Amino acid sequence: MSKTLYDKIWEQHVVHDFDDGSSLIYIDRHLVHEVTSPQAFDGIGREGRVLWNRDSILAVADHNVPTTSRNDRVTDDEARIQLETLEANCQSYNLRYFGPHDKAQGIVHIIGPEQGFTLPGVTLVCGDSHTSTHGAFGALAFGIGTSEIEQVFATQCLTLRKSKNMRIWINGVLPVGVTAKDVVLHIISVIGIAGGTGHVIEYAGPVVDRMSMEGRMTLCNMSIEAGARAGLIAPDETTFSYLKGRPFSPREQMWDKAVAFWRDLKSDADARFDQEIRINAADIAPYVTWGTNPEMGCAITQRIPNPELIQDGIQRASIQRALAYMGLEGGMPVDGIPVDQVFIGSCTNARLEDLRAAAQIAKGRRRAANVKRVLVVPGSGLVKEAAEREGLDRIFIESGFEWREPGCSMCLAMNADRLEPGERCASTSNRNFEGRQGRDGRTHLMSPAMAAAAAVAGHITDVRRFEKGVA
Amino acid sequence: MQKFTTLTAQAAYMPIANIDTDMIIPKQYLKTITRSGLGKWLFAAMRYDAHGKEIPDFILNANPQAQILLAGENFGCGSSREHAPWALTDFGIRAVIAPGFADIFYNNCFKNGLLPVRLPKEAIAELAESKQDIQINLKEQAVICGNRRFDFDIEPNNKAALLNGLDAIEPVLAMRSEIKKFEAAHFARQPWLKVGG
Ligand code: SF4
C-alpha cells in the first residue's frame, strides 16, 4: 500500500502496537532547555532511574539568558536558579550542554540543525512546541510536556496515537517581497489555528522545492500555530548540502549510506492524505497579524475585518476582544499602524538568511524617531559570527538597531527584553498572544524584511515599496 | 498520579475560543523548578490587575469553588508547557470541557489527573446556562446535568490512565527487552543514528 512520508517514519519507529490503538514509538533525538526540564530531571532522580541513552540528548540554555553581555549576571533569581539547575543536571548526568558562554549556544531549534543533530528520518522531541521546526529536514519532530520528557529520559520511547496526514501543496513562484514567513502566516489564516489539530502537515510543491533550508524551517516552525502535531518536508539535495560536514552529521562512507537511505524518504506518488490543501504562491502578499493569535492576520494591502459583520457569537467576541487588546479598530488598514518597538529574532526568523533580509532594508536608512528600540537577536552564536563576518552587525548598528547576544529574548520575554504595557511591536517571532512579549504588549507578526521596513518607516508598511526603491 | 473516576462540581464558563497556554499561565511563572504552587497564577493576567489585585468580575475570582472549566474551541493552544495543567489542577480544576483541545495540552492533561472532555459547543452553552452542579462519570463517558446527559468520546489508553492513576513510565520500563531489541535492529538499519558512535 502506498504511504506518506509520515507513515514511513512512524513505521520505522514502532517498537510495539498496543491493542487500544496506541503505539510505543522510539525516539532518536532529544533536545533539552532550562524551562521545561527541571521537573523531569527531578523525577528521574527521585525515582532513582537512569537515562536510557544520554548520547541522544543535547541541552542548551536559551529562554532565560540575557542578550546583553554574556558576562552580565542574571539578576532575576528564579531565572538564574533555572539556568544553574540545567547546568548542574547536565553535569550530573554527563550530558552535552551548550551554556551561555559557548559559541555554539543559541535557540534550541536553531542549534539542532546547525549542529547536524537534526537528521532526516529521525524522531526528535523537545519540551517545546516549536520543535516542529526540525520537520524541515524530514525528521518527525514535535513538542512534548515535561512528563513526557521524563519518560523519554527513562525509556527512550513515547506512547502515542498516530496523527492524520495533511498535505499542503504550494504551487507557482513566490512574488517579489514574499518570504516563507508570509507563506506560513497566509496558510494559518486559510486553515485556522486549529486547522491542523490532530494532523501532521507535509509541505510540498514547487515553492517548497525551491525554498532554502532556512525558509523551510520557518514554514515548519509555525506548523504548531496551525495546531499541527508536526510539519514535514521531504529531504532533497538542498537538505543534504545543508547537513554535509556539520559536527554531528555522518561522515565519509556513513554519509553516503545515509544519503542513499534518505533519498527514499518521501511520500509515494499515489499516497493518500486525509486532507489536501492547495495554495497558490501568486495569491500571497507580505503578511501582518493584527490580532492576538496567528490566524488573525491579513495581507499588508488589506484592512482589519469588521467584527460587526461576523455572524458567529464566540468568533465575533474573540475579534472584539483582540481588537480592544490591540488598541485597533475593525475596518482599519494595517498599513500605517505606528510601532514603538521592533524585534528581529526567534526560532522562526533569526537565521543568517533572515538577518540578511532585514539588513538589506536597513542598509543606509535610520530607525524612525518614534521607534524606541529595534532589537536584533541572532539565533545562535554561529549565526552571530557569520553575520559579523558579512558586516551585518555594522549595518544594523549604523541604522540605530541594537545587536544582541543569541537567545529567545523578546519572543516570549522571559528575560529582561520585553514590551511595556500598551507598547506596539513589529516582530518576526511566532506568537502574538496577549501578554506574550510583556504584559499588555501588542505584537504584530511579520517577516524580517517587513519588520526592518517598519523600523525605518516608524509604522507597519509594505516592504515592496522599498524594493522598488520608492521609500 | 491522582485518579479520575467521577466528579460532581460547580463549573466556571469562559466563553472564549483559543484560550492559549500564555493565558492559562503567563511565562513569568515558568521560572520555577517544581510543579507545585502554580494555581495562584492561573490566568494571572485576567485574574489580577496591574497592581496584583483580584479583578472581581473574572469568573474564577467570582467562583473559586469551580472544579470544572467550560470553554470555547481549541483550548490549550500554544506552548507545550505542562505548567498549564499544573496550574489548573493546583487551583482545583479537575476537568475542562471544550469543543476541542490543542494536541500537546490534551496529552499533558492525562499525565496530571486532569480530564479534558470534548463536547459540541451547543452542549457546553446548555451546561453553562443550567447553573447547576455538573456530574462527570469517566467510566460511563458521560456528563450529566439535571436531566440532561451528554456522552463523550475518549481514547481507551487515556481513559485507562486516568481511571487507574497509572504512572506512565513503569509499564514502559517493563518492556525493556523489547525496546532493546528494537533499538539494536534500528541502529543496524540506520547506523548513523547512533550519536557519538
Ligand atoms: S524563540 Fe520563542 S518560540 Fe522559539 S524556542 Fe524560544 S521562546 Fe520558544
Describe what this molecule looks like in 3D:
The complex is a heterodimer of chains A (471) and B (197). Chain A has 471 residues and is an alpha/beta fold. Chain A is built from 16 helices and 19 strands. Chain A has helices spanning 5-12, 38-46, 77-92, 108-114, 146-155, 180-191, 206-210, 213-221, 237-243, 252-262, 313-326, 352-362, 381-389, 392-398, 448-457, 463-467; strands spanning 14-17, 23-26, 29-33, 57-60, 96-98, 123-126, 140-143, 157-160, 164-171, 199-204, 230-232, 275-280, 287-289, 297-299, 341-344, 373-376, 402-403, 424-427, 442-445. In chain A, α6 packs parallel to α8 (213-221) and α12 runs parallel beside α15 (448-457). The radius of gyration of chain A is 22 Å and the shape is globular. The model of chain A has no long low-confidence stretch (mean pLDDT 96). By secondary structure, chain B is of the alpha/beta class. In chain B, the strands form two sheets. Chain B has a four-stranded antiparallel sheet with strand order 1-6-7-8, with helices on one face. The two termini of chain B are 38 Å apart. At the A-B interface, α2, α3, α5, α10 and α11 of A face α5, α7, α8 and α9 of B. Bound molecules: iron/sulfur cluster. Iron/sulfur cluster binds next to α4 of chain A. Iron/sulfur cluster (SF4) binds at residues 62-63, 107-109, 128, 130, 346-347, 408, 411-412, 429-430 of chain A.
Notable traits:
heterodimer; A: alpha/beta; five-stranded parallel beta sheet; 19 strands; globular; B: 197 residues; alpha/beta; four-stranded parallel beta sheet; 34% helix; binds iron/sulfur cluster
Mean pLDDT rating of chain A = 96
What would CATH call the architecture of the largest domain in chain B?
Answer: Alpha-Beta Barrel
How are helices and strands ordered from N to C of chain B? EEHHHEHEHEHEEEHHH
The secondary structure category of chain A is alpha/beta
Quote the distance from N terminus to C terminus of chain B. 38 Å
Which strand order do you get reading across the main beta sheet of chain B?
1-6-7-8
Q: Percent range for helical residues of chain B?
A: 25-40%
CATH first level of the largest domain in chain B: which class?
A: Alpha Beta
Largest β-sheet summary of chain A: 5 strands, parallel
Ends distance of chain A: 56 Å
Q: Rg of chain B, please? A: 19 Å
